[in-house]
C-alpha cells in the first residue's frame, strides 16, 4: 500500500459540457467590469444573472431528477464553480448547492423533496455553519426546544441576506439537528450584515433568540451529524474549485501585465524575479486543478469515504495556498498600480483571504490529513 | 554641543510626563499608521492639531535653528522625544515630507528667505508638503523622470505627470524632480529640483483609491503650470544629487530631520496581542504547534532587525560585507512586515475574512488593512525586486 | 496491433511470477538507483547479468523487431513489464542510453547494417552506450556544443571534450553531438549526430568523482580521434534535430524505447518507512505536529504529480495552459524529489549526520546519498532555473 | 514588555582581537586544499596545527586564569569558532572548549583545576552527549555504580578518537553524574568510529560496558543537571558560530563563481534566479551573525538565564537554517561542477547537514523558543 492511496481522476462528458458552457456564460455575462459594479452595494451580484443561472439548471445539477435536478452528482458542480471563480462571479450558487446537499443527506430525498425542488428551481438557500471563527471546532451551542424555539447565534452566514431558506445546525437535547428557517419568518434585526474583505461576497450574523420554526421543520436523526461533516467537506471542495478558477484568472492578469509593462527599458516579464514566481503559481495551480478534479471524481451522493475526504482536504489546502500566493504576488508585481483599487489584483488578493478562511485553512486541512494518512 | 546622559535622562522623564498628559484620546475613527494613510479631512484635522501641539510644546524641530521655529538644541533631545513618542504610542507627526525631506534640505542649502518662508510652517503643520518624484511610466526607475521644466523669464513652466503623491490633495508645496535638459548625456544630469507650489493654475490632483479602499495618494498633473524661478534648489542639473541628498535625512533627527514619530511601527507583540482569544481546533491559536513555529519565526525576524541595527554599529562585526546591514534594511523590513501581517490574518480563522467597517472585525480590521498597506513599502521607493538587485550588485558585487 | 485487457492481465501475472522467482538477492553492496550511479565494476557486472537475464526471458525490447533481438510485440506488454518491475522493486536495466536513446533512434532511422550491428547487443547489455552532448563550457546551452568533427575521406576526425558522460569508462559506443560546420548561420545547424566508437585511439576518459564521493561520470577527451564516416546518423547539420528526437523516446516503451526499469523511484512512502523508529523529543518523529505538516506537504507534492499525469490525459482539463503539465514535469519532479530527500535527512535527528559506510546509518545512508544525487536531476538536462525559463516562455508566453 | 526581550549586543576589544587573529591564522594555515587533505583519513585535522592552536591559548580562552586560561568567558570563543567555520578548519577545539565548560560548571573550578589546566594547555577533551539520535530527549540511561563501573552506550561522541578525557553523563542511582573517563583507560574496541556526512569531522560510538573509572573521577551533585543543560546551550551557540562562518565562506564561493561563469553569453550572476537567492543567503547570514554575537554577549560563567537560552537557541536555529540553504544552493548554482567532489560546494552542503543535527535542529529550537516566548 502506498500513502498516495486512491489516485483516480475521471471527467465525464457532462462535466466537460458544463465546464464549456459555464466558461462561456461567465465570460459573456460577467466581465470584471460587471463584477466591480456590485462590489460596494446590494447583494453583490446581479439578480437577473442569478435567474439565468437558475434557468440553466445549475442549482439542481447535483440534486435528484425527481426533485427537478439533473442528478449529475456533486462532482458536476466543480467545473461550474471553477468557471465562476475564474470570472470572479459569485451569486448564491455555492451556498445554495451546499444547502441542497445538506438537506439531501440529512433529511433524505423523500422528506426534503419540496425544499429541494425549490432549490433546483433557483430559490437561494444557505447553511449557518459557524458560531465562532474556528472551523476546527464543530461543536454546536445553539439550541432548539421541542416547540421549535431557537436560541443562540450564528456568524458569517454566507448569502443569508438573500437566501429563502437557512439551514441552522442546532442541538436538540444532546443530538445535533437541523432547523429549516424560512426567510419570511426572520424578524427584523435577526441578521447583522458582515463587512467582508472579499467584496464580491456577502454574509451576516444570525441572531436566533426569539425565532421559532415549525417543529415539522426540524430534521433530526443519527444521520444529521454525518451529513454536516460530509457537507463541510463538499464546501471545502467547492470553495477550492472556485479558488482554483480565481488563481488561474489572477495568473492571467499578472502575465498579461508582465508582457506589456516596461521598466529600465525591458519588458518586466523578462526578469526572472517576476517570471519564476509566475511559474511557481502555474505549477501550484496545475496541482490544485489536479486535486479538485480528483476529488470531483470521488465525491458522490452517499456518505463520503476516507479517499473522498482526503481528496477534498488536499484540494482545499492546495487551491487556497496557490491563490493566496498568486494574489499576494499579483499586487507586488503590478508595482504601484498593484496598490490601487483600480487594479484587478485587489480582487484576487481579497478573494484569496476570504477563500482560505472558508471551511478551514490549508494548515487546518493538513492537520486532518496527517491523521488520515499517518496514523 | 555635547549633552550629558544625566541631562537626557531628566529630559526623558519630562517628555514622558508630557506625552502621558497630552496623548489624545481615541477619536473614534482609525488613525493612520503612516502619513501615506491620511485619507480624509477628519484624519487630517486631527493630525494637524496634534503636530501643532507637539511643536508648540517644543518637542519638534528641536535641533533646527531657533530663528526658523526650531529649538536650537542637540539632536539627541529630539531622538529622546521620538523614542518616547513610540513608547507612548501617540499619533504620528504626519507632515513627513516637510519634516524629513524638504525641511532639512532647505535648512541645509536654502537661502535665508526660503528658510524663513518654509521652515516654521513645516513644523507647525501650517504647510503640508508632498513629494513629486515617481511617474506613471517609471515606477522603479526614478532617474528616468520625464516631467519637463522649461525656464521662461522669471518662471519655470512645468508639464508632465507625477504619481503616488502622498497627501497631494492636501499639500501646499511639492518637492519636485523635473527634467530641465532632455539632451543631457547621462539621464541623471538632465534633472533639477524644485520647491513647487501646489496652488498655481495648471496643477491638478486626482485622488488615487488604494487597494484598501481608502485614499491617501494622488496623481498630480502639470499643464503649463508656471512657478517662480527661485523655486529651483541648487543649480539646474543638480536634481538627482539633491534628491539623493533628501534620502539621507530619513534616518531621523541625528541626520538632520525635524524628528517626530513618523510611523506607527506594527510589531510582532501587536500580532500576539491581537491573537488573544482566537481559537484553532478548539484551543487558543497560540497553542497550536505549527502556529507556534510560525510565530517564533516572525519573532526572530523582528529581533534580528533590532540586533542587526546594533551590530551595524560594531565596526569589527561589519567587515565581511560592509554596508550590507543598512543597504538591505528596507528590503528586510518591508518584506518581513508583509509576511508578518499576512500571517496575522491567516491565524484569525473565519474572522480573517472580515474587513474594516465590521463591528466584530478583530481590532477593527486593523491587520487586513495593514497587510494591504504593507505593499506600499515593498513597492514604493524601489520594489523589493529592485532592492534585491541593489544589494546583490553593491554588496555582493554580482554583475548587473 | 491491439491487445485485449484480458491478455495483458494474464501476461501481468506471468511476469509477476517470473520477477518474484528471479529478483536477485541483495548483493551486499548498495545498488544504483539510476544508471548515473554505476560507480564500479562490481555494480556493473551485477547489473549486466541482470539485464541479460531479463532480456533472455523475453522481457526487454518486447516491441522491437524480432530480427534484431526484440520481441515484435505490442508495446503495451513492455509497459506491463516495466510496471511490474517497479512494483517488485527489482534492479534497474542499466544500459539506459542504449535502451532509451540510441537504440530506438537506430531502430527508427538506422540502416539494416546498423540495426543488426547494434540493437541486439544493446538489449543483451553486451554493448554499453553513453551519451556525449554536454561540454564543460556549455552546461545549460547544448546548442552551443563546440566539439569538432571534420570529414577526412572515409573518416571523421573528432577533437574536443565532452563532460558528464555517464558510464563513459564502461561504454563501447557514444551518441555524439559534434560540430561539422562552424560557419552555419544558426548555431544549431552546424551540428551533426554520430554513433561513435569509444575504443579508437584518441578517445580518453577521466572519471569524475561525484559529490557523493562515488564515481559514475567521466569527462571524455577527443584528440584527433578517427571514426568511420558511416557513424554519421542522418545528414550533416541534422544533429540538433536528431538529438531532440532521442529525447522523445525517454517517455518509455510506448514512445519507442526498449523499456526496462530505468530508475528506482524513491517515494514518500519510502521516506515514511525510513523514519520508523526515529524519535523527536522523546516521541516518534511522525507524531510531531510540525513534522506532520511537512510530511503531508511532501505527500501532496507526490500525489499531485500522479494526478497531474492523469489529468494531462483529459483533454478538456488541459486547455487553460496547454502543454503545461508535460513541459513542467522535469522541473516539478526534480525539485520535489530534492526537497523530499532533504526533508528525510532533516528528520533523522543526529543520525542524519551519518553517511554511507556507517554500520548504523539509517538504511545504509541511503537518504544522505539520495539527497546529493538528487542534484543530478535539478542540474542535468537543463538546470531548474533554465527549466523555469522554458515553462515561463513556452507556456505563459512571457518574454525571453 | 516586548516578546523581543533582551536585545543587548556588545563586542569587547578582546573579542575583536581574537576574531582578527583567528581569521588570519585560519586563512594562512588552513586553506581549503589543506582541509581536503584530511577529509578521508586520520583524525581529520593536522596535529601540528592543533598544537599551534593550543599555543595560541584558544583552548583556555573561556577558562579561569587560575587554571591557565584567559578568563575571557565563553563569549570569546564565538569569534574564534566563526573564523574556524569560515575556513572549514575543525580540530577538537569545539569539543574541548565544551568539555571545559561542563567541567567548570559541574565540578567547579577548584575540584576540576588539574583537568582544566590540562585542557587549557591543549589536551583535547569531549563530552558524550547522546545515547540516541534525539536531542530533544535528555534522558540518560547509562549508569555508574558505587565502584565506578560504567554500563551503557553513547553515540556520536565527537573527537572521541583523540580526546584525552571524555566526560560521560551517567546515572548514579537517580541522580545524573559525570564520569571522567581517561582515554588511557579505554579498552580496545570501546570506540567504534562513525562515518560522517561532514568529512572534516570525526565521531565514535562509545561502549561503556566493562569500563570503570576511579570513584574519585565521578562528579555528582545537584548542579550537574543544570551544568549539562547549560553546556548543551553553549554547544548550540558554538556550532552556530561555526555554521555562520561556514555560511559566509559558502556565499563567497558561490558569488565568486557567479561572477566568472558565463552561460548563454552572460555572466550567470546577472540572472536574478541566481542573484536573488544569494541576497537571501546574505540576509539570513547577517541575521545569524547578529544572533550569535547577541548570544555571545549574554552567556557567561554562571548559570544561564532565560535571555541567554533564548539567544543561544535563536542563534542555532538561524545559523543552521541559512547554512542548509546556502549549501544546497551552492551545489545547484555551480551547475554540473557543483555535482562534483572537486567543487567546494560539497564541503558546505555536508557541513550544513552535520551542523544542523548537532545540539538540536532549527525546528527543535523553535519549539523550545515557543515555550520560552509564548507561554
Please, could you describe this protein's structure?
- The complex is a heterotetramer, with 2 copies of chain A (375 residues) and 2 copies of chain B (400 residues).
- By secondary structure, chain A is α+β, with helices and mostly antiparallel strands.
- Chain A has 11 helices and 11 strands.
- In chain A, helix 7 runs parallel beside helix 9 and helix 9 runs antiparallel to helix 10.
- The longest helix of chain A is centred in the middle third of the chain and has 38 residues.
- Chain A is globular, with a radius of gyration of 21 Å.
- Chain B is globular.
- With 400 residues, chain B is an alpha+beta fold.
- The longest helix of chain B has 23 residues.
- The termini of chain B are far apart.
- Chains in contact: A-B, A-C, A-D, B-C, B-D, C-D.
- At the A-B interface, strand 10, helix 9, helix 10 and helix 11 of A face strand 9, helix 9, helix 10 and helix 11 of B.
Quickly list its features.
heterotetramer; A: 375 residues; alpha+beta; Butyryl-CoA Dehydrogenase, subunit A, domain 3; 4-stranded mixed sheet; 3-stranded antiparallel sheet; 11 strands; B: 400 residues; Butyryl-Coa Dehydrogenase, subunit A, domain 1; Butyryl-CoA Dehydrogenase, subunit A, domain 2; 3 domains; 4-stranded antiparallel sheet; 10 strands; globular
Bin the strand percentage of chain A: 5-15%
Whole-number radius of gyration of chain A? 21 Å
Largest interface: A-B, 49 and 53 residues
Mean pLDDT of chain B: 94
Number of strands of chain B: 10
Q: For the record, what CATH class of the largest domain in chain B applies?
A: Mainly Alpha
Under CATH at level 1, the class of the domain at 224-374 in chain A stands as Mainly Alpha
Amino acid at each position: 500500500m502506498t500513502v498516495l492511496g486512491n489516485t483516480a481522476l475521471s471527467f465525464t462528458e457532462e462535466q466537460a459540457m458544463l465546464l464549456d458552457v459555464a466558461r462561456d456564460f461567465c465570460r459573456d455575462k460577467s466581465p470584471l467590469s460587471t463584477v466591480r459594479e456590485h462590489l460596494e452595494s446590494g447583494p453583490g451580484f446581479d439578480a437577473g444573472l442569478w435567474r439565468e443561472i437558475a434557468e440553466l439548471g445549475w442549482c439542481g445539477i447535483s440534486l435528484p431528477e425527481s426533485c427537478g435536478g439533473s442528478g449529475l452528482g456533486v462532482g458536476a458542480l466543480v467545473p461550474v464553480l471553477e468557471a465562476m471563480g475564474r470570472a470572479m462571479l459569485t451569486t448564491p450558487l455555492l451556498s445554495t448547492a451546499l444547502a441542497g446537499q445538506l438537506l439531501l443527506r440529512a433529511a433524505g430525498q423523500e422528506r426534503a423533496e419540496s425544499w429541494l425542488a425549490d432549490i433546483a428551481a433557483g430559490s437561494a438557500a444557505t447553511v449557518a455553519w459557524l458560531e465562532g471563527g474556528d472551523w476546527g471546532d464543530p461543536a454546536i451551542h445553539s439550541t432548539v426546544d421541542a416547540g421549535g424555539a431557537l436560541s443562540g447565534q450564528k456568524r458569517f452566514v454566507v448569502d443569508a441576506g438573500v437566501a429563502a431558506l437557512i439551514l441552522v445546525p442546532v442541538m436538540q437535547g444532546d443530538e445535533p439537528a437541523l432547523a429549516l428557517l424560512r426567510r419570511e419568518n426572520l424578524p427584523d434585526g435577526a441578521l447583522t450584515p458582515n463587512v467582508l474583505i472579499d467584496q464580491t461576497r456577502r454574509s451576516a450574523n444570525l441572531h436566533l433568540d426569539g425565532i421559532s420554526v415549525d417543529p415539522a421543520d426540524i430534521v433530526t436523526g443519527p444521520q444529521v451529524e454525518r451529513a454536516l461533516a460530509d457537507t463541510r467537506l463538499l464546501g471545502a471542495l467547492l470553495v477550492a474549485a472556485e479558488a482554483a478558477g480565481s488563481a488561474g484568472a489572477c495568473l492571467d492578469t499578472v502575465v498579461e501585465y508582465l508582457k506589456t509593462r516596461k521598466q529600465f527599458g525591458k519588458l518586466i516579464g523578462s526578469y526572472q524575479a517576476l517570471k519564476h514566481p509566475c511559474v511557481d503559481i502555474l505549477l501550484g495551480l496545475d496541482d490544485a486543478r489536479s486535486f479538485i478534479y480528483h476529488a470531483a471524481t470521488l465525491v458522490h451522493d452517499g456518505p463520503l469515504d476516507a479517499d473522498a475526504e482526503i481528496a477534498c482536504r488536499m484540494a482545499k489546502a492546495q487551491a487556497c495556498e496557490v491563490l493566496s500566493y498568486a494574489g499576494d504576488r499579483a499586487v507586488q508585481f503590478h508595482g504601484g498600480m498593484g496598490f490601487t483599487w483600480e487594479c484587478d489584483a485587489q480582487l484576487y488578493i481579497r478573494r484569496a483571504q476570504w477563500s482560505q478562511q472558508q471551511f478551514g485553512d490549508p494548515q487546518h486541512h493538513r492537520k486532518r490529513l496527517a491523521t488520515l494518512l499517518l496514523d | 554641543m555635547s549633552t550629558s546622559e544625566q541631562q537626557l535622562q531628566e529630559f526623558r522623564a519630562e517628555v514622558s510626563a508630557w506625552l502621558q498628559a497630552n496623548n489624545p484620546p481615541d477619536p473614534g475613527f482609525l488613525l493612520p499608521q503612516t502619513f501615506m494613510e491620511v485619507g480624509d479631512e477628519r484624519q487630517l484635522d486631527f493630525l494637524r492639531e496634534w503636530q501643532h501641539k507637539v511643536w508648540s510644546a517644543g518637542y519638534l524641530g528641536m535641533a533646527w535653528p531657533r530663528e526658523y521655529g526650531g529649538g536650537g538644541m542637540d539632536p539627541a533631545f529630539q531622538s529622546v522625544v521620538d523614542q518616547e513618542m513610540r513608547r507612548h504610542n501617540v499619533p504620528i507627526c504626519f507632515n513627513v515630507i516637510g519634516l524629513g525631506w524638504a525641511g532639512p534640505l532647505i535648512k541645509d542649502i536654502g537661502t535665508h528667505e526660503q528658510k524663513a518662508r518654509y521652515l516654521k510652517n513645516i513644523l507647525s503643520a501650517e504647510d503640508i508638503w508632498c513629494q513629486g518624484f515617481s511617474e506613471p511610466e517609471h515606477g522603479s526607475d526614478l532617474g528616468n523622470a520625464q516631467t519637463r521644466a522649461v525656464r521662461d523669464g522669471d518662471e519655470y513652466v512645468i508639464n508632465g505627470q507625477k504619481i503616488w503623491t502622498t497627501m497631494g490633495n492636501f499639500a501646499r508645496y511639492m518637492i519636485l524632480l523635473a527634467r530641465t535638459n532632455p539632451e543631457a548625456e547621462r539621464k541623471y544630469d538632465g534633472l533639477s529640483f524644485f520647491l513647487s507650489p501646489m496652488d498655481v493654475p495648471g496643477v491638478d490632483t486626482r485622488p488615487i483609491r488604494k487597494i484598501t479602499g481608502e485614499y491617501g495618494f494622488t496623481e498630480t498633473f502639470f499643464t503649463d503650470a508656471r512657478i517662480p524661478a527661485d523655486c529651483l534648489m541648487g543649480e539646474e542639473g543638480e536634481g538627482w544629487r539633491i534628491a539623493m541628498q533628501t534620502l539621507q535625512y530619513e534616518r531621523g533627527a541625528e541626520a538632520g530631520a525635524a524628528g517626530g514619530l513618523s510611523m506607527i511601527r506594527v510589531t510582532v507583540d501587536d500580532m500576539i496581542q491581537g491573537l488573544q482569544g482566537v481559537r484553532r481546533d478548539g484551543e487558543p491559536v497560540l497553542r497550536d504547534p505549527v502556529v507556534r513555529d510560525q510565530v517564533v519565526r516572525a519573532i526572530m525576524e523582528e529581533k534580528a532587525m533590532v540586533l542587526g541595527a546594533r551590530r551595524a554599529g560594531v565596526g569589527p562585526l561589519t567587515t565581511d560585507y560592509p554596508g550590507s546591514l543598512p543597504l538591505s534594511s528596507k528590503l528586510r523590513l518591508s518584506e518581513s512586515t508583509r509576511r508578518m501581517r499576512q500571517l496575522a490574518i491567516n491565524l484569525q480563522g473565519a474572522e480573517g475574512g472580515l474587513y474594516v467597517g465590521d463591528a466584530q472585525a478583530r481590532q477593527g480590521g486593523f491587520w487586513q488593512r495593514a497587510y494591504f498597506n504593507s505593499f506600499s513599502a515593498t513597492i514604493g521607493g524601489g520594489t523589493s525586486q529592485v532592492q534585491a538587485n541593489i544589494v546583490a550588485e553593491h554588496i555582493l558585487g554580482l554583475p548587473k
